[in-house]
Design brief:
two-stranded antiparallel ribbon; DNA-binding; alpha+beta; homodimer; 2 domains; Arc Repressor Mutant, subunit A; rod-shaped; Umud Fragment, subunit A; six-stranded antiparallel beta sheet
DNA sequence: TGACATAACAGACAAATGTCTGTTATTCTT
DNA sequence: AAGAATAACAGACATTTGTCTGTTATGTCA
């Protein structure tokens, strides 16, 4: 490769490596070499070492494909959670076998094993910015605090509502004037909180 | 390692490898070996080869750390995209320098290189279920079709609006009666479409 | 010009890693 | 008991990949 002004190739190498890291397969030194047409391995290595020295990359010495982006430590940590969209509401509480689909979440804060996802059906939460077809990510928990949005099992149906309490009684509030709050009967009708909605996603494409 | 019932260790190996792939550093054969305490490299290799044969993994023969999740079916591989939330609006069109944060997306359908994410500021898209603080994932593209939600650069400000056309003229519509549509002036005011919003995410925790 | 820094090259070595051949143990089925 | 299938092991070899030492070119600056 011909001589290039200081920093020029360096920058391109950084962008190349960054791209590869983001796409999931960090390059080997020789892959960088080939990508830039260097005739010596060392040329690629010099750039990589310089980038590490600058703090733009991190690496694990001796290991193959060990270059990483410095800030990525916790960000990249991800987890697959099951989509339960097509499952009958009544079976939601049962153990998950082989869900039809998986969703990728960043599990920095929550334990991925207790998460699942649902597709929202009705328009009852329009006022909270939750539209039909949206995906809600739910953390399994048997109780909630007032004001939180929960997935509850009322009778046979799973529903997304805002959890409230009035005089010690539970109420599930929709965020849409066309709907009425749900007040679980005190007779034996099955009622339980499946979990709390911690994220909402909407696909527009 | 002691003898385990058929399929048992296999499954754990799969989960281990999947976790590592998702976290950005696919393991070497020997890393799998050590993780499971195999005394022979071949033990790890057998499991890995079997998983490839089953179609649960894919690999590039001969290369280091080359196991990947198949893009097909339900488990999609992940991709990191830059969050540009804190960047000045006016600089959005420039090349990405050092994004402070990254977001994990499933890259089945779009090319990760053309995606970025933004944090929504105002309330102008309330009617479309896009609230302040929401994160929008945007695919870079210079044009849009009527009805699509876009991120546009008007003057110095980046804004999220619904793209419409009236008599051949572009209009950017908010989804909130308290706001007025934006009609780009025909004098030299900078106006451009940065991209199309393909996903909306909201964190509730 | 000469010293200095950076870029690029050349050739080699060593460690990491993928791959191969063959063997033994365990479980299940017939 | 015999055979088949799977699991695990042993030891080696070949390739890939990281690393090293030294050299040559190009540009900058005093």
């Amino acid at each position: 490769m011909a001589y290039t002004p200081p920093g020029e190739t360096r920058k391109k190498v950084y962008e190349f490596v960054r791209e590869r890291i983001l796409s999931g397969s960090p390059p080997t030194v020789r892959e960088v070499q080939r990508a830039f047409g260097f005739r010596a391995v060392q040329s690629a290595r010099q750039h990589l070492e310089a980038l590490v020295a600058e703090g733009k990359l991190v690496k694990d010495s001796g290991k193959a494909r060990s270059h990483r982006l410095p800030e990525l430590g916790r960000v990249r940590s991800s987890h697959l959670i099951p989509m339960l969209g097509r499952v009958q509401a009544g079976e939601l509480t049962t153990a998950l076998q082989d869900p039809g689909d998986y969703l990728l979440v960043q599990k920095t804060r929550f334990d991925g094993r207790e998460l699942f996802a649902l597709t929202v059906q009705g328009e009852s939460m329009l006022g909270a910015g939750i539209l039909p077809g949206d995906t809600v990510i739910v953390r399994r928990q048997p109780a909630a605090r007032p004001g939180e949005i929960v997935v509850a099992l009322v009778g046979e149906e799973a529903t997304v509502k805002r959890y409230r309490q009035k005089k010690g009684r539970v109420e599930l509030h929709p965020e849409n004037d066309a709907f009425e709050p749900i007040v679980p009967r005190e007779d034996g009708e099955p009622f339980s909180i499946l979990g709390k909605v911690i994220e909402v996603r909407r696909n527009l494409e």
